[in-house]
Amino acid sequence: MCNDSYWNSTTVCPNAGPGVSAIMFVAGVLGNVLALVVLALHKRESRSRVSLFHILVSSLIVTDLMGTLLISPVVLAAYASGFSLTHLRLCGYCAFAMAFFGLSSMLILFAMALERYLSISCPYFYSRHANRRTGLVTIPLIYGFCIVFCSLPLFHTGPYAQYYPGTWCFIMMHTKCQPAKVRLYSLSYAILMKVLIISILLCNVSVIIDLCRMYQRQRSRRCSRQSSARRDHSAQAEEVDHLILLAIMTITFVICSVPLTVRTYIGAISEQGNNEADLTALRCLSFNPIIDPWVFIIFNTSIVKKTLSKILCCKFTSKGHKAQTTVFIRNETFE
Description:
Elements: H1 19-46, H2 52-81, H3 85-88, H4 91-121, H5 123-129, H6 132-151, E1 160-163, E2 168-171, H7 180-220, H8 226-269, H9 275-299, H10 302-312, H11 322-332
Antiparallel strand pairs: 1-2
């Protein structure tokens, strides 16, 4: 006999307050709007062409903002009315939106990691194929894939389910006693997220290794012309700056998304549900679009950049070029 943690009541659990959801909504909207403003100011100051990395970062912020605007009001409406999403007939919408924005954010992060990897490890290929047009094509493809994949439950491949306290719905995670096709879809979502996480980590590790090799080559050419040394130094500073931002966002997303992925795996093999564990996993996932923009804003302050440069990039800098590095990072981060 299976004991799941689905919330089948037509009312919201009276013990669950809306305060946390309201604070998360305000913080998410404010953070993403400010991040877009900071990004726009960077491009205005640098007066340079929009790069592929810039397009991907902008798309991630916009995706997080849209996710907050389209999901949080539904949760707040359920709290305000006292009725669950199933009763309000919003369960399917909420489940699709959560699955879509969670998967699309991860795919954009993967695209950012792959862009960094190609720029360092495959510079010839990158210079020929990675440009603004590539980004403008990649983002619609990501959205299209996510729409198709997350819409499959509408065609009875794996139903959506409402969870405690009745204010959120998601892909059915507790599938131990469900038909094989339901379990397959649930596990497919979890496996896809896991593969993306591993791929992002591998790309970032590869970039770090290649940056260390670049440093070794720079040391061997110390007697070359000063202008050449400055160009090498500037390129390394830019790559390191991009890598730091990407690494922080990746760590944030992994921490926020792993609990829900783990709950899906557990639900596929265990007959017992856990309301509190599911709610905690949901809140972790919901924190990602809130944390990401604030990470971006804090990272782009001059004090934080200087500190990170000294800690993580000291091997790539010399005392004579330290001031130049700070100026370069401030102006060129998102070119």
